Amino acid sequence: MPLSPRRLRIPEENGTMLVEPPFAQAPDLLAEHRPDFDIGGQSAAALRQTARAELLAAARRYTAAYRDVAFLPSGRSLKILLAGHQPQMFHPGVWLKNFALGRLAERHGAVGISLIIDSDVARPTALRTPGGTAENPEAAWIPFDRPDPAISYEERRLEDADLFASFAERVRQRLEPLVAHPLLTSYWPIVQERLRATGHWGAAVAQARHRLEAAWGLHTLEIPQSVVCDLPAFHFFLAFLLAELPRFLPVYNGAVTEYRRQRRIRSKAHPVPDLAVDGGWHEAPFWIWTADDPRRRRLFARQTAGKILISDRAKFEARLPGNNPLAAAERLAELRRRGLRIRSRALITTLWARLFLGELFLHGIGGGNYDQVTDRIIERFFHVPPPAMMILSATLHLPVPEGGRTFLSGSSNLEETDKNVCPPGVLLRTTGQQLRELTYHPERFLDAPASPEVESLVSEKRRRLAAPPTCENARAWCHAIRGINQQLQSHLEQVRRKLLLQQTTAEARAKAEKILRFREYAFCLYPEETLRPFLARLLAEV
Predict the structure, then answer these.
(1) Cα–Cα distance, 34 to 56 (Å, whole number)
(2) pTM for this model (two decimals)
(3) Residue 117 CA: distances (Å) to CA of 220, 344, 516
(4) Which of 231, 271, 361, 504: disulfide with 54, CB 3.0–4.6 Å?
(5) Using one digit for the tens of pLDDT, what is the confidence trace for 508-541?
(6) Can the peptide bond before residue 27 be classed as cis, meaning omega within 30 degrees of 0?
(7) Which of the pair, 117 or 413, is modelled with greater confidence?
(8) Per the omega criterion (within 30 degrees of 0), is the bond before 92 cis?
(9) What confidence tier does 74 reach under pLDDT thresholds 50, 70, 90?
(10) How many Å apart are CA 395 and CA 393, to the nearest integer?
(11) Among 190, 171, 167, 191, which residue's Cα sits nearest to residue 179?
(12) What span, in angstroms and rounded, lies between the C-alpha atoms of 401 and 11?
């Protein structure tokens, strides 16, 4: 089956949401039948049951360390809804997923679990923040830590305590002329408290945000993907894939190549790089590093004499039992205790989550697009229909008064105090067209009555236009028309100055609007009184 050419589009208007399929279809998605199949000599249903039990127990332990989990429903047949994101200060459109996760879980008697993707490299270490005035804003990156070293969130510790401690005040001072009372002022003290407890700023950012969600009535669990990758069921899955790499790799690469071809993507890095084959070595879709050297490296595996040799092709090698996934999983657990880290990469993270952990996965637009590759991998390697997913995103502009207009969080439109104000993009296009007309058709801008000299020039141009050029006189004809247009310009200097001023003003307004309407400002730059009605309104239909 060829990949679907479906492309998911960002909701452009302020206060609008993309949800596909609609929330009303959630009961049907949660009730989808999960076919059984063999995986490493055991049934997928049995592995799924074990994996879900381990996930729930681990997520409850992790979340209970920093917030109450008494809300967790009970029952062996408990349904699980999942979402995931890096431990960042993401924008409100991403934050919407967390609230939808909690609302859907509560509505359908399930539990919502958010995966903290802490195996990604911890960047950026700064927050894009607008400053200046509404008429002349500027955006800058405000750092909360030094950018080095380039290691995962799981391993990343704070490099500059002074930058971190002063971060909220530096952001507030820059932002305050545009946005009053940003959530950051109450959020950052919680981040600092969680940093003291965890030692990792990624975990602190995520746990503080989750505590804030609890205060707003949201009941979900969270768990780092690193913890998921260290659970016994995942070790079994990892051992199975390592043993099946020669068969799995062509399926994986084929789905990625098809995605690129369907969307005319030339970059070999998107949506993910191909897995490499080098002699008997096959690249696995996992990262590997050690406690002594926490830099992420690619994982390779090789079948040899009834064993599976795993390596980063540089410093590390280890042998696993080749024909026994259970024994190989035990060996992986032993290596983990010795400091080895093996973490799933993007498509495998969601493949495992969707196929074995939950009934429904909530994606953002990027993940929803890329996970169409995962769909094909599931279909072609496991020979089962891919489980359901829901794609969510939204757009919310900062509530900044801008040149007589204000972006209102509860409205899908830009409300203007002056209804006659032309949007800067339209004004730029119109002014550009008028300047072109002024160059090539200056007679259209002349006031009546005109001087005899001007009337003579206009009459001469009309006479020449009435007699189309021939092959013999085309060059002379063009030069004559161009000369007349040039002579008329001297009588329209005031018009040109006015249009050029209008163009400069429109360019400044367009630049300001681009900064102020940027949809990816972090949620903590918004006031609570803007965020809460926005989230409540979009989720009312749940």
Answers:
(1) 19
(2) 0.87
(3) 16, 10, 29
(4) 231
(5) 888 899 999 999 999 999 999 999 999 999 999 8
(6) no
(7) 117
(8) no
(9) low
(10) 7
(11) 171
(12) 22
